[in-house]
Amino acid sequence: MQCSSLVKTNLIGLQEELGRSIESGVAFQPTRQLLQTIEEDLDALDSIYECALTQERISNDVLSLGKIQLDLLQMFDVETNIREEAQKIVNVFQNEARMNRVDLTLTFSDAFNQLGVSNIKTDPVRLGQV
């Protein structure tokens, strides 16, 4: 995965810089660029985690196909914050989009905001799959 190798490369670079700082006795001075890189790496790690959760969900859904055929699949309607669930789904693709120089953002229409909708009853696993 590109994200994990980029994060690993950045961590190795940071480790080398810190090692040089220790060996030379010169205090390490973080730069704004370094802090930005760390922030991007943290976002990438969040994305990797979300992707892993999505893969787990997909695997579980594939295993559920037999239940569908036997008419035994259950759906669970739970109170779900639609904004948070939608953001989780966008987060899965956020880092990959950034690496491809695509600005991926989530916005809700004014009509959605005017209705005051925040929670819906849905199966969050099925919603994420869709």
Topology diagram in text:
Layout: H1 2-24, H2 32-69, E1 78-81, H3 82-99, H4 110-115, E2 119-122, H5 124-129
Antiparallel strand pairs: 1-2
Helix pairs in contact: 1-2, 2-3
List keywords for this structure.
130 residues, mainly alpha, elongated, 70% helix, 2 strands
Rg over C-alpha atoms, rounded to the nearest angstrom: 21 Å
The total beta strand count reads 2
| Sheet with most strands: strand arrangement | 1-2
Compute the number of structural domains: 1
Please give the alpha-carbon distance between the first and last residues.
23 Å
The amount of helix comes to: over 70%
Overall 3D shape: elongated
Mean pLDDT reading: 83
Which range does the strand content fall in? 5-15%
Main sheet properties:
2 strands, antiparallel
Describe the fold and architecture:
- 70% of the residues lie in helices and 6% in strands.
- It has 130 residues and is mainly alpha-helical.
- It has one domain (2-129).
- It has a two-stranded antiparallel ribbon with strand order 1-2.
In short:
This protein has 130 residues and is mostly helical. It has helices spanning 2-24, 32-69, 82-99, 110-115, 124-129, and strands spanning 78-81, 119-122.
